[in-house]
Amino acid sequence: MINELTVAQLDAITLALSSGRLATFDAAAGFSAGAGVLDKYSWHALTSAAFFASLHICEVAIRNGVDTALQATYGPSWPWSTTFERSLPNPLGNNFNPKKELLRVRGKTQSRETGRVIAELRFAFWCHMFTSRYQVRVWDAHIATVFPALPPEYSSAQARHVIHMELDSLRKFRNRIAHHEPIFADPLLHRHQSIRSLVNWRCPELHRWHSAWEIVTLAIEKKP
């Protein structure tokens, strides 16, 4: 692709994207010797987009699973449950604050529509719901229902811990993609497998459907 561009075109593209940004890609390891900087850049953009589609499926499936567990524990209007609200930590400082996040979203919802709250809550909130704080409160009773295809050797606590670790890594990965940060140094095959595993544990039929159209596999294979 880069060989088809004139010097003037290359200069214009470099100015638009910034030479400093392109220098990061120019120096990136793990590409073939003949890969040009714009070949690397376009591959990275398309791969990031491919991952975002799969992350979408994973996040929606997970948050709806948490909703199932919270409804079973606190009722269908769990965002307005005083007991649930009290279970959320309220840390000081710049750390993520689950209680403030719930109150922020709840305050934007004029009617008591749980679905609207689910759609507005940040990914960090759903990750937080898999911390050990909710092992006894929520997951001992409901993790097998929400994740019916978990590896049989996992205990409830082990499953919750693994899900939390994988989700938190994917949350950070997702944020880098959303902010257009380089992800080529990430273990992309592991990230892809993490998404696939979480989706499969949540719903094998969803996993099979997602596997039929996801394009992360193809994107990784096309790395220049």
Amino-to-carboxy terminus distance = 11 Å
| Multimeric status of the protein | single chain
Major beta sheet summary: none
Summarize model confidence as the mean pLDDT: 95
If you had to describe this structure to a student in words, what would you say it looks like?
By secondary structure, the protein is mainly alpha-helical. The protein has a domain at 35-76 and 123-221. It has helices spanning 7-17, 19-26, 37-74, 82-87, 98-108, 114-120, 123-128, 135-146, 156-178, 188-202, 204-213, 216-221. Helix 2 (19-26) crosses helix 3, helix 3 (37-74) crosses helix 8 and helix 3 (37-74) runs parallel beside helix 10. The longest helix is centred in the first third of the chain and has 38 residues, at 37-74. It is elongated and about 65 Å long. The N and C termini lie close together (11 Å).
How are the elements arranged and paired?
Elements: H1 7-17, H2 19-26, H3 37-74, H4 82-87, H5 98-108, H6 114-120, H7 123-128, H8 135-146, H9 156-178, H10 188-202, H11 204-213, H12 216-221
List keywords for this structure.
mainly alpha; 12 helices; 224 residues; 68% helix
